[in-house]
Amino acid sequence: MSGAQRNLDRKIVVIGAGASGVACATKLLELGFQNVLVVEAEDRLGGRIHTIPFADNVIDLGAQWCHGERDNIVYELTRKQEEELLESTGPVYENYQCVRSNGEVVADQVASRLKTIVGDSLVTRQLELRHCSGSLGSYLTNKFYDTLRRPENSDIDAEVAREFFDNYQKFENSVEASDTLEQVSGRGYLDYWECEGDILLNWKDKGFVELLRLLMRSRELKAEHGVLKERLLLSTRVQKINWNRNDGRVELQLSNGDSCIADHVVVTVSLGVLKEQHWRMFDPPLPVEKQRAIDGLAFGTVNKIFVEFPVAFWPEDWTGFTLLWREEDLDDIRGTSRAWLEDVFGFYRVSYQPRILAGWIINTNGRHMETLPLDEVQAGCMYLFRRFLQWTIPEPKQFQTSAWYTNENFRGSYSYRSMETETLGTGARELAYPLTVVATTPEREKEPEDELWQQSRCDRPIVQFAGEASSEHYYSTVHGAVEAGWREARRLAQFYGLSGSRSGTKSQL
Ligand SMILES: Cc1cc2nc3c(=O)[nH]c(=O)nc-3n(C[C@H](O)[C@H](O)[C@H](O)COP(=O)(O)OP(=O)(O)OC[C@H]3O[C@@H](n4cnc5c(N)ncnc54)[C@H](O)[C@@H]3O)c2cc1C
Fold this sequence. Notes:
It is a single chain. This protein is of the alpha/beta class. It has 3 domains: 3-47 and 205-296 and 413-508, FAD/NAD(P)-binding domain (3-Layer(bba) Sandwich), CATH 3.50.50.60; 51-92 and 300-401, Polyamine Oxidase, Chain A, domain 2, CATH 3.90.660; 111-189. The chain is built from 19 helices and 23 strands. The radius of gyration is 24 Å and the shape is globular. It starts with a helix and ends with a helix. The structure holds flavin-adenine dinucleotide.
């Protein structure tokens, strides 16, 4: 067997079949590696991409939109298809009604001014947060009330403004996956780069799962798992990663009792899983810098609530509503079994689903909801609809919630940069760097003159880390997860000096 062939035969195990794992494995195959296995704890592919049939079409319990176009790998992948796969969701999350807990609809003219105040901060924060040592929460609070105090806003009712801002903070928490905005680092917020273009592109009637089909090329190959066919081990958990064997290989202990020896392992499990399980998962324990990254990067919970009604009871041009709680009305639920409802912040229309509304819940209450029986959650949501909306609300036909926290394979929804991240001085780079051993044999096909290769010359990556949280600028998204998966596939190709690892990857990135 030639050296090149031996390298392509290296056993590579990818842990996790979410967007990052699927992207990594399919890229490795594309680069010529042949001995690739993906081990996934769930009985399905996709991880935090989870499209299920519901009502007239499908719904996404996790990722729903492609966020932006320029420099967005997911968007670029869809552009290579003949069919237009993505579509603008339109102004659903701009045109919503603001409804108070006594059923009063905030006048459009007032609501749109309040929306403009918070909308304007989206621009100013890009400049002002650069020098901010505090939290996103304190920045936004000061900004909002400073603007509200201006003479031109003196006619806005202070109570309504406060209720609106309370609600807005919940919305922002859903974007970050934080419990409170005081947890979010002001400066760290800028680590995230928004891709230019439409940030709410939906997958029409197909759902986000379509991306997995593209990555696996299962549409062309007509096999369910496309190029990953027979390379997938579903319903199998990796329990232990023994990465310090004398032979420089990695031993994995699997939940089915088997063990497996690999030349390289790519870990794509969520940051939530790493936070909870890295101590028992890695033997020996991870280096201190890696532990600091896992501790310091933040991971929070956002959940969705889908309600199917027998008919749409709302007007055609109505896109949904946000819930503005009057302080005195909160007393009706606080201290009761319905207290969790305070953190449901809105219900919105869903593309290609004429009869459903999708609600969002954050915070500890979002995690608490996961522990409640579904009929109790449904009753709570119906209480909200009937309390806030003036129309006659029919009983729902179907009801579905997500549960990202209680599932031990996720332990939350997505990552963000917290004040703790700042304090510990850590970040995605520290999470992403691989565990290596010194290479003792000439393992490369040839010596390319590239700088990255030179740097890594002596270090053979044996355990690599991908997943959305390891993306420096696109964390918390699917495009960040895909990018991270490709990054690690490319790292291996570069280690072995495989031709095509640079040009092939560049052309796709
Ligand atoms: C409610 C919600 C809404 C979102 N909305 C959007 C959106 O609109 N647009 C967007 O771009 N992003 C969105 N995201 C974020 C996006 O879904 C994630 O960033 C992305 O899917 C993460 O992919 P991943 O491969 O990094 O991780 P995961 O999808 O978590 O994949 C990791 C996989 O590892 C498996 N695993 C865990 N432990 C083990 C083990 N021990 N052994 C084997 N397998 C294991 C898990 O089961 C999982 O399948 C949303 C997420 C949520 C939860």
